[in-house]
TrEMBL record:
InterPro entries: PRC_barrel-like_sf. It comes from Staphylococcus nepalensis. This is Ribosome maturation factor RimM.
Length: 40
């Protein structure tokens, strides 16, 4: 699980269904969120 902090804190599961691409040098990840992951 990755913890992403900004205005809120999000927990991103590090599984193939969610994490599509990791760019270490660019410090970016591309994800496909699970249903309800970012619901307020």
């Amino acid at each position: 699980v990755w913890v992403v902090q900004g205005d809120k804190e999000y927990l991103i599961p590090y599984i193939a269904d969610v994490v599509q691409e990791v760019d270490v040098s660019g410090r970016r990840i591309q994800i496909t969120p699970l249903e309800g992951m970012f619901d307020e």
